[in-house]
């Protein structure tokens, strides 16, 4: 206590010191004294009040404790008195049994008195009730039945309590009321018939449904009443015939059975080879499901008590039956067409029921995810198989058309075609369109299947075209026409491939499709281009096969040099004749054919030069030969430009350049050779030597010296650079300038496939 007082004093001193820090603060001492006096008085007053309150509470608590002690004493005394009285009453237990028996008999007589009228009128009431049931007056019939059953149940309970003989259920009372069981069954049967037709009755005669439900609800309440009573009376409810009835549960079972019967009624037992069986069946199901649930929502809900949750009940049962229906259909090994129809139907049905407020997604999918995946795999496999089978049939049909005795069809522009391109891509379009409704992923998978099939088609088509060319080139009446149609078919296929790719890019909002698809599109495009190029070459093989005797006269002194113009005129006339058939090609391929024909002719001409078919005797003859080659080159260029309708024809300048090597003076040969080598990446020293061998002024030593002055010196010397002699001319220096142009940048030209006859044998 002393330490606390000391601490308080120190704290007070510090507080006063804080407030009196300056001399002028001494004027506030009286004010501070008054302030602290008031605080002290207030604290003392609150303390006195708190202490007084505590004292009052303690006094009240002591008073309550004294009262409690008095009450406990009184209770103890009363319990002692009760215990004494109980001991005295034990002897009265045996004497009260007669009174109990009298009470029991009184209760039985009272029950009998209450039901006396019903007891005596049981046979008559049963007959009347049967008539009421037959006349569909079910409420009155149920009233009579309920009164009789109540009488029977009350009597049986009393009987059970008074006699153990009741247990054998073979008393006269049981026999007397046994007709009530049949009467109850007859009434119930009438109710079940009504409930089986619930959906039609709620629209046309809802009173019958409401009546049936009122009776069922009354029976439910009676079941509960009887259960409560037998529980209190300690009577097994099994001793009461027909109880509990549980008609509400039976009602729901009947409704569920009617729903199942509705589905079974329409389920197809056999397809009967009808391709449209599934579509017709699903449309029927969709129609009655939508109509039934509409009736439930609009008419059945007001008829059924809320506890039935009839909306929920019907959508749940319909969903279960729809799931079973889908499973049964899947087990039937559906075709791809049927699978597509089924999956579309599920989606459409969900959307229709959503309009009514029934969301099937809340009850689970109609088709399980595993089954959905299996269906997709099956569908894709069938699509793949059907596409392959369809392609095989198309190829067989195409082959038959090629061997027919009539020409191919032509469009309004006169372009031949066989229709395989149209049929092929109609098949692709139909398969993709059919699967498109199943989602983008499935659509892309079908697209990949079709692209793979197109690549397989190209392989088979190419082999078929090659075989047709090999076997029918001399036999088929319309070989050229059908080869033209093959080229046009490939062009149509390429156009469709472009359209298909562009369409998918637009639908997927992608500039470039995924890598596999883009790769497949490019391969297909390239494949059809290869087939069209191959067919063009086959057509040219025919033309050049006929021109071989004529072209063999090139560089022949008598037929070519001394009679100029005859060979090219014959070539032109032959191509002009064949062009009457080639103009049935589409313009793109007609131009490509003419370009290829010109290329072939030029290569044939070069090949003739390489074979040293002529050796010019003097400078005049060299000049004449060079001029003839240039003249032939111009003739080839103008002729094929005219046939191909090219606005900017490609001129075979190579022939003019080779003509210069024959006609130019010897001092300019290094320049010409190096210039030619810089332009033609595939020309070799052997080609140049073969050309120089046609000149009369070139010996073996001169050729060797000349080649050493050109950019082809390394090739001529087996890969070793030959140093030019000190007396190199200005032409050699100029030739070195041409060597600065890298030959690796040039595209392969005419000389790659041309064999060389080198008469000088320089290496």
Can you describe what's shown?
This protein is mainly alpha-helical. The protein is 74% helix and 1% strand. The protein has five domains: 2-73; 116-254; 267-367; 375-537, Orthogonal Bundle (Tetracycline Repressor, domain 2), CATH 1.10.357; 667-763, no CATH class. It has helices spanning 2-19, 29-89, 97-114, 116-120, 122-134, 138-162, 172-176, 179-196, 198-204, 206-233, 247-266, 277-303, 310-330, 336-355, 369-402, 420-436, 440-472, 479-508, 515-551, 557-561, 566-582, 587-610, 619-644, 653-663, 669-679, 685-692, 700-708, 713-716, 730-738, and strands spanning 409-410, 416-417. A two-stranded antiparallel ribbon has the order 1-2. Helix 14 crosses helix 15, helix 19 packs across helix 21 and helix 24 (653-663) runs antiparallel to helix 25. It is elongated, with a radius of gyration of 57 Å. The N and C termini lie far apart (134 Å). 29% of the residues are buried.
């Amino acid at each position: 206590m002393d330490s606390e007082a000391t601490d308080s004093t120190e704290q007070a001193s510090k507080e006063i010191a804080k407030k009196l820090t300056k001399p002028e603060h001494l004027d506030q001492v009286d004010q501070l004294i008054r302030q602290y006096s008031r605080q002290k008085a207030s604290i003392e007053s609150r303390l006195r009040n708190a202490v007084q309150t505590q004292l009052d509470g303690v006094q009240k608590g002591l008073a309550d404790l004294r009262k409690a002690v008095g009450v406990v004493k009184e209770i103890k005394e009363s319990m002692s008195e009760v215990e004494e009285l109980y001991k005295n009453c034990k002897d009265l237990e045996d004497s009260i049994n007669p009174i109990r028996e009298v009470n029991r008999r009184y209760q039985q007589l009272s029950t009998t008195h209450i039901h006396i009228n019903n007891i005596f009128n049981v046979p008559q009431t049963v007959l009347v009730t049967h008539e009421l049931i037959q006349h569909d007056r079910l409420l009155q019939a149920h009233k009579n039945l309920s009164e009789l059953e109540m009488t029977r149940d009350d009597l049986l309970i009393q009987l059970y309590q008074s006699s153990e003989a009741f247990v054998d259920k073979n008393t006269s009372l049981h026999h007397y009321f046994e007709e009530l069981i049949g009467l109850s069954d007859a009434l119930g049967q009438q109710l079940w018939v009504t409930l089986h037709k619930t959906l039609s009755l709620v629209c046309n005669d809802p009173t019958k449904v409401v009546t049936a439900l009122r009776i069922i609800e009354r029976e439910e309440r009676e079941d509960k009443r009887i259960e409560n009573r037998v529980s209190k009376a300690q009577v097994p409810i099994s001793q009461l015939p027909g109880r509990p009835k549980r008609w509400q549960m039976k009602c729901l079972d009947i409704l569920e059975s009617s729903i199942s019967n509705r589905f079974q009624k329409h389920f197809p037992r056999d397809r009967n080879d009808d391709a449209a069986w599934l579509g017709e069946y699903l449309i029927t199901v969709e129609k009655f499901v939508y109509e039934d649930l509409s009736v439930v929502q609009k008419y059945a809900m007001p008829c059924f008590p809320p506890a039935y949750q009839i909306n929920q009940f019907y959508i749940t049962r319909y969903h279960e039956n729809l799931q079973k229906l889908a499973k049964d259909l899947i087990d039937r090994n559906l075709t791809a067409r049927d699978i597509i129809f089924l999956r579309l139907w599920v989606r459409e049905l969900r959307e229709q029921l959503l309009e009514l407020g029934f969301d099937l997604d809340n009850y689970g999918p109609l088709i399980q995810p595993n089954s959905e995946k299996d269906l997709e795999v099956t569908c894709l496999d069938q699509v793949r198989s059907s596409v392959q089978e369809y392609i095989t049939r198309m190829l067989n049909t195409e082959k038959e058309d090629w061997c027919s005795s009539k020409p191919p069809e032509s469009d309004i522009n006169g372009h031949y075609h066989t229709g395989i391109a149209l049929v092929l891509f109609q098949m692709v379009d139909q398969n993709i369109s059919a699967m498109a409704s199943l989602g983008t992923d499935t659509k892309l998978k079908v697209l990949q299947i079709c692209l793979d099939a197109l690549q397989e088609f190209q392989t088979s088509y190419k082999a078929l075209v090659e075989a047709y060319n090999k076997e029918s080139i001399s036999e088929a009446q319309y070989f050229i026409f059908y080869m033209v149609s093959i080229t046009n078919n490939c062009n149509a296929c390429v156009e469709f491939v472009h359209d298909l790719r562009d369409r998918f890019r637009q639908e997927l909002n992608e500039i470039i499709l995924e890598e596999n698809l883009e790769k497949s599109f490019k391969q297909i495009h390239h494949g059809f281009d290869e087939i069209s190029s191959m067919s063009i070459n086959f057509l040219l093989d025919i033309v050049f096969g006929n021109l071989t005797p004529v072209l063999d006269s090139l560089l022949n002194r008598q037929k070519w040099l001394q009679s100029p113009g005859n060979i090219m005129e014959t070539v032109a006339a032959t191509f002009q004749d064949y062009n009457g058939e080639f103009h049935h090609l589409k313009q793109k391929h007609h131009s490509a054919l003419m370009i290829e024909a010109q290329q072939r002719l030029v290569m044939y001409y070069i090949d003739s030069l390489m074979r040293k078919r002529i050796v010019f005797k003097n400078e005049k003859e060299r000049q004449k030969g060079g001029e003839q080659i240039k003249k032939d080159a111009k003739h080839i260029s103008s002729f094929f430009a005219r046939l191909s309708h090219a606005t900017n024809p490609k001129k075979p300048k190579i022939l003019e350049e080779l003509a210069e090597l024959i006609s130019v003076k010897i001092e300019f040969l290094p320049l010409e050779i190096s210039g030619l080598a810089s332009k033609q990446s595939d020309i070799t020293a052997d080609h140049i030597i073969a050309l120089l061998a046609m000149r009369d002024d070139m010996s073996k030593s001169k050729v060797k010296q000349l080649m050493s002055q050109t950019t082809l010196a390394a090739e001529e010397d087996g890969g070793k650079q030959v140093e030019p002699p000190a007396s190199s001319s200005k032409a050699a220096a100029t030739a070195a300038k041409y060597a600065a142009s890298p030959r690796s940048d040039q595209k392969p030209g005419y000389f790659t496939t041309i064999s060389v006859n080198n008469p000088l044998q320089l290496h």
